[in-house]
Amino acid sequence: MADIKTFHLPDLGEGLPDATIVEWHVKEGDYIKLDAPLCSMETAKAVVDVPSPYTGTVKKLHGAPGDIIETGAALADFEPDANAKQRAEAEATGHHHGPKKTEAPAPAPAPAPAAKAATADREDEGTVVGAMVSGSHVHVEQAASIGGVKAVPAVRALAKKLKVDLARVRPTGADGVVTMQDVKDAAANGSAPLGAAPARAVPASAGRHLAPELPEPGAAPSRTPVSLAGKAVRTAPPSVQASGQPEQLKGVRRNMARVMADAHAQVVPTTLVDDADLHAWIGKQDITARLIRSIVAACKAVPALNAWFDGKNLTRTMHPQVDIGIAVDTEDGLFVPALRNADVLDGAGIRAAIKRLRSSVEDRSIPASELSGYTISLSNFGMFAGRYATPVVVPPTVAIIGAGKLCHDVVAVMGGIEVHRRMPISLTFDHRAATGGEAARFLKALLDDLSLPN
């Protein structure tokens, strides 16, 4: 009987329990070489190419494009080629291939200091997918040739978002690799629209075939308030029978749902609201840069809200630096990249940093390290709509500021009334870590700085 090996989805380095299959680069029965691209998986942060752990024949694929696979669950079955060189069973691969364990292992003896250091050096290896040996050197993401096109997963994700046909993009990277800029240029000049021409044919020697694409859904039938018989169409409430199709949350939205649920369960939120009077502003000013500056001023005045709180151990860590998490809304879901060292940046530096973060979020090239570790958050929802809100505090942070839509309000002044430009501000804080007085003083310091002329 043939020796069948099952490959389990490894930890893709995002700290998440699952990932979504974007596309298979093989089909059942194909012959694949060790470390050749097996499939592309979407996590909450990026689209990652998962390499084959064997040289041999693909016997079974556990899932179709769009399916969610749990970390440690079966991904594919292989029949290894007995005549080909395989990776040794004990060789370090940088990630765990086995299924999830249901029982906790017995406690092991405490390692020696040297062993602890070696273990710490190797902990981050789980964030890299593919064959690798133990070590502390950096592993660079490689461009995979799929469908006759060489590109890294982030470039493929950007092309999909911008509806650019990678097969028609002129590559400018080394060895014919399509770069981010190539895709952006093609989208801007319309030289490679998706569906305008057939993609490049895959060489027969490649031994890989893309999974078939699902047909586009047809137009939804038109709805009318009455049937052909003149009676009301709906005879039961929506809860009894719904016409819509439940949609499984995936990628960024799936992670967002988990984070929001955890925050709701762990934090004791309280919100204060007030309006910043911008009447004294001189000339045109960068509103976001002024918001950032005001948050920094408030953090210096009341450090208790620029902190992390550990609810389990009831400990608080206040930070000397101000790293602000900037909420960025995308079609895929919410990203919160960190604007590092905001307390030492001037207006131009703040604008340049925010532009860089937004660009890397849009093309999904932002590293995971820039999506965590911020000390306080900002949600500028007012650029769309809304005045006041109760934004969600995500542990371990203690506070989040919400900036509402600018408005012109009638205000009372000495001797009469005036129309002033004002910005609604909402401050939500974890009441376990900060008092109401600290939050009120923080909000006042923020409003005072926003009211300055420049």
Automatic annotation (TrEMBL):
List the residue ranges of the region (Disordered). Answer: 81-125
> Which residue stretches does the UniProt record annotate as biased composition, category Basic and acidic residues?
82-94
A Pfam family recorded for this sequence: 2-oxoacid_dh
Kind of enzyme, top EC level?
transferase
Q: Name one GO molecular function term.
A: acyltransferase activity
Provide the Lipoyl-binding domain boundaries.
4-79
Domain of life, per the record? Bacteria
Q: What residue stretches are annotated with the Peripheral subunit-binding (PSBD) domain?
A: 150-187
Q: SUPFAM superfamilies, alphabetically? A: CoA-dependent acyltransferases (SSF52777), Peripheral subunit-binding domain of 2-oxo acid dehydrogenase complex (SSF47005), Single hybrid motif (SSF51230)
* Key word Acyltransferase present: yes
PROSITE patterns with a match to the protein in the record:
BIOTINYL_LIPOYL, LIPOYL, PSBD
Please list the cofactors this protein needs. (R)-lipoate
Q: Does the keyword Transmembrane helix apply?
A: no
- Alphabetical list of PANTHER family matching this protein: DIHYDROLIPOAMIDE ACETYLTRANSFERASE COMPONENT OF PYRUVATE DEHYDROGENASE COMPLEX
Membership in a protein family? Belongs to the 2-oxoacid dehydrogenase family.
Q: How does it assemble?
A: Forms a 24-polypeptide structural core with octahedral symmetry.
Q: What is this protein called?
A: Dihydrolipoamide acetyltransferase component of pyruvate dehydrogenase complex
